[in-house]
Specification:
The structure holds two protein chains of two kinds. By secondary structure, chain A is mainly alpha-helical. Chain A has twelve helices and no strands. The chains are: A mainly alpha, B alpha/beta.
Chain lengths: ~325, ~150
């Protein structure tokens, strides 16, 4: 009973739910601010994502007459719930070990595409032609960036597994624990291609330029999100903020889970700083320097560059 | 202050802009782009964002004299925007017809069809004037929510 209660606390307050949302929203604000500063603009205040959500809550909800109502209403809830559960899996080194300790890397791999699937569901249920175009683009992008992600996860699992002697280690708890003893995987020269592949995976999965193709606001007017407004759109935005926390936290846990000292607060701040650095490197700087790819260019990019990089790491780990 | 009032007060700090071109010569649209893109003006510091979908819009910026062919489309798109919305007429054309006034194809001025809240005259208006119009629209939005700006 107390296990279940503890799991609920982990999903709702820390590190899922409230904490993940606070960090995700703060990062979104920092992202917009830094991008504006890079373009020599002033930029919005850091609380802007919260203000956007507050605004959306006061707007009326319109549902298209031709839409499939149940799926249309369900999609944002599915995306949000998937990510809220996902966030509880993210270990914060030195503070929290992660909710489960068996095969959670594989579970994360299955849970991570849920927001994209929710987007596809909402887009196709909205009965808008732009939603349908967004649907097909989102699916192509998903197929493209999931492959390198799987290979990166496999490479990390094999590296740790070979050292421990279990073949492949799919427990995030053990992966982080192994790194705390034997040094971070990100500093291992064999794993640097995999880390670069993970960096390339981030903008694709978060749907920012140059890979914001499914939600391109200038050509297919936000695609699947076109018909959403008011609280439903707010739920999508909250889901995106949670997702950014999940993928950044996963990156830190996989490659740089080092701690400083034993005091939990320092470790927490250290973890957030590493997540922030990862976001600036992979998302903000890339986003403010690039324009949008066409869908087939993005697809070709993902099935060549990051996939090959991840494959190099995988083969090197296997051959070692 | 109740939760609802607080939410409404916060909400006007996130006005998302939507552009409708009602047969404009594009002069005002270039100025609107300037307002967003040139660092000196930067409409994003007010929390604004140009959005592609009318469903996401809060403040509507209409340019152009409302030509006969575009009238029904403008009305359709304008009706798609969820309440509360504030309408800003940008440039002299939607206000009086400008140089196109009394032309055979002109259905304007725009307030024959749509209630306009803020007029930003000019041919085209300066970015500062557009920014002032957006700020004015924010206080009108606050009034529409039932709070004094």
């Amino acid at each position: 009973m107390s296990d279940i209660l503890l799991a609920v606390v982990h999903m709702c307050i820390f590190p899922g739910g409230v904490f993940a949302l606070a960090v995700g929203m703060l990062f979104k604000g920092i992202d917009r601010r830094v991008e504006a500063r890079l373009q020599r603009r002033v930029g919005p205040p850091l609380v802007q994502p919260w203000l956007d959500v507050a605004k959306l809550l006061t707007k009326e909800t319109l549902i298209p007459r031709t839409a499939c109502k149940s799926a249309f209403l369900l999609a944002p809830v599915v995306g949000f719930t998937g990510m809220a559960v996902c966030a509880a899996f993210i270990p914060v080194p030195g503070v929290f070990q992660g909710l489960f300790n068996m095969g959670d890397l594989l579970v994360l791999f299955y849970l991570l595409p849920i927001p994209a699937i929710a987007m596809m569901l909402g887009g196709s249920a909205s009965s808008s032609p732009f939603g349908a175009v967004g649907f097909s683009r989102e699916m192509l992008m998903m197929l493209a960036y999931e492959t390198p992600l799987l290979m990166v996860l496999l490479a990390v699992a094999m590296l740790v597994g070979k050292s421990v002697g279990t073949g492949a280690e799919f427990s995030l708890l053990n992966v982080v624990g192994w790194q705390l003893e034997n040094g971070s995987i990100g500093f291992n020269p064999v794993m640097i291609p995999a880390f670069v592949a993970y960096l390339m995976f981030l903008p694709g999965t978060l749907g920012v330029a140059p890979f914001d193709i499914p939600e391109a606001e200038t050509e297919i007017i936000e695609g699947p999100l076109l018909e959403y407004g008011g609280p439903l759109l707010a739920l999508f935005q909250i889901g995106t903020a949670l997702k950014s926390f999940v993928v950044l936290g996963l990156g830190v846990a996989l490659f740089f889970p080092g701690t400083i000292g034993d005091f939990w607060l320092f470790n927490l701040v250290w973890f957030c700083l590493k997540c922030l650095l990862l976001m600036l490197l992979a998302v903000t700087f890339v986003k403010s320097a690039t324009a949008r790819f066409r869908i087939e260019q993005a697809f070709r990019f993902y099935v060549t560059v990051p996939t090959v990089l991840a494959l190099i790491s995988l083969v090197l780990v296997w051959a070692m | 202050m109740s939760m609802d009032t607080w939410l409404k007060k916060m909400s006007v700090r996130s006005p998302w802009l939507f552009r409708i071109n009602a047969g404009s010569c594009n002069g005002c649209d270039v100025e609107l782009a300037t307002t967003a893109c040139i660092p000196r003006y930067d409409v994003e510091r007010l929390g604004c964002k140009y959005c592609g979908s009318p469903r996401h819009a809060d403040i509507v910026l209409i340019t152009g004299p409302l030509t006969a062919r575009v009238r029904d489309r403008v009305l359709t798109v304008w009706n798609e925007i969820p309440e509360p919305k504030v309408t800003v007429a940008v440039g002299i054309c939607p206000i009086s017809g400008g140089v196109f006034r009394e032309g055979y194809s002109i259905e304007g001025p725009i307030d024959r069809y749509i209630p306009v809240d803020v007029n930003v005259p000019g041919c085209p208006p300066r970015p500062q004037a557009i920014l002032e119009g957006v700020v004015l629209a924010r206080s009108i939005w606050l009034k529409k929510l039932g709070l004094e700006g």
